[in-house]
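Consider this one:
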Amino acid sequence: MRLLFDQNLSPRRPGLLAAEYPDSVHVRSFGLASAADSAVWAIAVEGGYVIVSKDSDFEQQALSYGHPPKVVWLRVGNRSTAAITALLRERFEEVLAFEADPGASVLALA
């Protein structure tokens, strides 16, 4: 599974989760540290990524336009990098099932 971490998440996250989510990247890898959501969306579609963000705009876009890309919406507030990393590890099976579900566009994790 390939995750694309949005700018509102730590750029260290792909490395911290490499065992569970190989080939995942942060938007900074594409020079998109402060890019518009539309640019992030386009990279996700082109690269086959699932967007991971705390931004509700991606959730709204996914519900309006469907997928690809799919969106994992982290509804976690200002939790630490360690707490968010732990959440994505703990919910790994749920994230995998979401990616495989042809009818699902958004997975909200809290």
